[in-house]
Fold:
Amino acid sequence: MSGAGQRPTPEYVWSQIQKNSEGLTDAQLDQSPEFAREDVSWLRYVSLFLAHGWFLRPKAFPLARKGDKRSARPSRMNRRIGFFVLGWIMLFSFVPLQWAIAGFALWCGVAWRGIATMNRQQQNITSGEPPATS
Structure:
């Protein structure tokens, strides 16, 4: 979550280095590297950032340095997301529907500004879209 994101597996990188070091030409751009784990969906990604910002605005996770005690973990944010969803379910169950809808609309208005800002700042590339080149 903090940093460059996914990286190819070390074994894959090493095999590519060995394969391409024997030739005299430049190595071709690798369009489909082997990753250690799958991408997180945009919805999940935004949810984790919103949970870190206590669901008022998305907040980036701090970059962990050696010796730092990790204060914000995605596993902790998963629990927050669970309690947040449970809270909305309870609100819609016990409060008059008009009030619950008004509360949800108000929350969407507050949170959407931060989500839109984060979406503009992040490099969102859908699976069918080629990466931008300069």
